[in-house]
Design a protein that fits this description.
Layout lengths: L1 H6 L4 H26 L1 H11 L9 H33 L1 H4 L21 H46 L7 H53 L5 H32 L1 H6 L8 H14 L6 E2 L3 E2 L2 H24 L1
Antiparallel strand pairs: 1-2
Helix pairs in contact: 2-6, 2-7, 3-7, 4-6, 4-8, 6-7, 6-8, 7-8, 7-10, 7-11, 8-11
Length: about 325
């Protein structure tokens, strides 16, 4: 594929076509390398999730957690459906489009006559794409579900702080309740930091690659006829890539905004009914929660909806430049 891009370096359309799978493959390998590298940290995430501080709450609390996890599963299912559709449409053009007869799904240079061994080469490419897509989407969905768990735990913490009754409880009981909330908050921060350590570097390259892929995929959609299988496949692939980067930003933004309102939940309780000594402890905890829990990509880019708009804006800017260059040729 790399050799083919060098050969077709003067043909923007063919280079754009090759870059679709090449960029996705490089991103997948990068994410897998770092996932294996931080395998021990991932096992530590499992240990954190079994901590007793995350359990022993009411059914109402666990409903909040279940709803958050459900949203993670919904996003994962949507992305998986788009992934299956993209892989399926990838292999259909040679059979449904007469102009693409006996063309391979992935353009590339081969040290043999690919036309003579067309069907074995075609089958190998489709299996490679399907395997890459399945494993890559699994890593993505895993990170989204873990983010939704962290967000759900933050919702549980907020509900606990909101429902605390300082008037009826004695000072010792109130202190124990607050200490439990502080430990809960610290464990959530610890969980998020480990999630970031495992997935952060992979997400960073994914964001960078998404800018390129969205740009070149949009450019390809401009070149192919709308009523064609190639356009359908390209559109599905674009939707898949946009969903992928959007989910990262969405769940990262959810964690950040949920943690940012912990202090508001505490203010909604009757903390003012407690004595002055206890209020000092409350204020210290409030100062701690003023800093929102955030997830970053590579330690540089905060996962948020603002980042998503920046990605889309950058993709469109590069697309406009590419279209201008193509029209001038």
């Amino acid at each position: 594929m790399t050799i083919q891009m060098i050969i077709d370096r003067n043909n923007v359309s063919k280079v754009s076509d090759s870059l679709q799978y090449f960029t996705t493959l490089v991103t997948f390998v990068w994410k897998e390398i770092y996932f294996v590298k931080y395998k021990k940290t991932f096992l530590e995430i499992e240990d954190v999730l079994t901590a007793s501080i995350f359990y022993g709450y009411s059914s109402h609390h666990f409903k909040l957690l279940k709803d958050k996890i459900g949203s993670g599963h919904a996003g994962g299912t949507t992305f998986r459906v788009l992934t299956v559709a993209a892989v399926g449409f990838w292999g259909l053009p040679p059979f449904l489009d007469p102009q693409k007869y006996k063309t391979l799904p992935i353009p590339g240079w081969f040290p043999y006559n690919a036309t003579e061994y067309y069907y074995p080469t075609f089958a190998f490419q489709i299996l490679a794409v399907a395997n890459t897509a399945y494993t890559n989407s699994t890593l993505d969905i895993l990170s989204w579900v873990l983010m939704s768990i962290a967000s759900g735990q933050l919702e549980m913490l907020k509900e606990t702080l909101k429902s605390m009754n300082y008037e009826e409880a004695d000072l010792k009981t109130a202190e124990e309740q607050l200490q439990k909330c502080v430990r809960h908050h610290l464990e959530i921060v610890n969980l998020v930091s480990k999630i970031e350590k495992v997935f952060s570097k992979g997400i960073f390259l994914q964001i960078f690659a998404s800018v390129i892929v969205i740009c070149f995929t949009g450019f390809l959609m401009m070149l192919v006829p709308v009523a064609s299988m190639k356009f359908t496949h390209t559109f599905t692939y674009l939707a898949c890539m946009m969903c992928q980067v959007a989910m990262y930003c969405w769940y990262g933004h959810d964690v950040m905004t949920t943690s940012n309102t912990i202090g508001d939940s505490l203010y909604m309780s009757n903390w003012y009914e407690s004595d002055v000594k206890f209020r000092k402890s409350v204020f210290i905890f409030l100062e701690k929660t003023k800093k929102p829990v955030t997830l970053t990509a590579g330690g540089f880019v905060t996962l948020s909806l603002t980042t998503l708009t920046t990605i889309l804006r950058s993709s469109y800017s590069y697309f406009a430049v590419l279209r201008h260059m193509f029209n001038d040729v």
